[in-house]
């Protein structure tokens, strides 16, 4: 008899985006003339920049001739790309990461989801609340939790991110082995300083724990004092893996490219307590289960690091951050408390005592604006909504005028 992985039945169905769609569709049906502006889902809206398109085309043209055609490439990614990543994203920040510690992939969702495979099922996992749902759900699938009760899975150490702690997770009271961190954060848009990250790196070293650091929004950091990579923190090479993505950095959500950094200094421990190289394990996993990102996409990604590419991509991020400024100014003028929006495309707004769905409905019905209810990201998100800066400046400006009118 073919038996199912029972862990899948523990998963709480994620109704968040389908519930949003349902409410939006109902509203549109009742108000056929309403022009709805979507500041909900975390997806970019601007086209790939010209330099990236040029690189993409070059890759395609090479595939069109026998002499330059490429079949299977290295599973870890072409060296031409890994060298550019090491130089531009790490060496330029004083972080000592070599090209062979970089694993190019089709995005950070897969990598953040798959990485937990390398660990025993009975480790203690610490996950922030609210959070990008992938970290939690993939640990449920792997059998690291009990059932779902009172909005939480048993067996997981939840780290509450609240206004009182500036939306930064606190060190857990019980000893944990694996820690997920994400800065700039999705959904809250909060950031962490070097000193704040150092606390986690020190904890991991003391407790032989490992940090999985999701830096998908690193390129939105404007404040030069903030770290862009966890490897700016002393000691992080021994205890941290970093996930990166070109999705939010260069508009690659539909193109698909990201990478994971696994330093050779990172060690995990066998059941006998012997050291095992995490780099070797991930290399084995990646080369066994993944066959490389397509050549034209890697050429397109390489162009992100060209002189024109860097400028164009920076301009695109500045465009979204300008939208974020418009949103921040509006919520501030209306007297709402919020975080994010400064070094992040997300603004996390306290609903002044409203439940997140109530606030969602209010913005939808009074302003025809769609946001994301914070409760969808975890129990601690219930009093908040997330507003995203991913839309045109015209739409964001119009949406904010309407919100002002509706809530003044
Ligand atoms: C968007 C996002 C990612 C990136 O996903 P891709 O698979 O690379 O598109 C990773 N982590 C977080 C927190 C995100 O919001």
Description:
The protein has 408 residues and is an alpha/beta fold. The protein folds into two domains: 6-47 and 308-407, Aspartate Aminotransferase, domain 1 (Alpha-Beta Complex), CATH 3.90.1150; 53-305, Aspartate Aminotransferase, domain 2 (3-Layer(aba) Sandwich). It has helices at residues 16-30, 50-63, 79-90, 108-114, 134-141, 194-207, 236-239, 247-250, 278-289, 295-302, 307-333, 356-367, 393-407; strands at residues 37-38, 102-105, 125-129, 148-149, 152-153, 156-160, 178-182, 210-214, 240-245, 258-261, 267-269, 275-277, 338-340, 346-350, 369-370, 372-373, 384-388. The strands form five sheets. A seven-stranded mixed sheet has the order 2-10-9-8-7-3-6, with helices on both faces. The N and C termini lie far apart (62 Å). Bound molecules: pyridoxal-5'-phosphate.
Q: How would you classify the quaternary structure?
A: single chain
What is the helix content? Answer: 25-40%
Distance between the termini: 62 Å
Structurally, the number of domains stands at 2
Q: What shape does the CA trace take?
A: globular
Question: What key phrases describe this protein's structure?
Answer:
alpha/beta, Aspartate Aminotransferase, domain 1, Aspartate Aminotransferase, domain 2, 2 domains, seven-stranded mixed β-sheet, four-stranded antiparallel β-sheet, 17 strands, 15% strand, binds pyridoxal-5'-phosphate
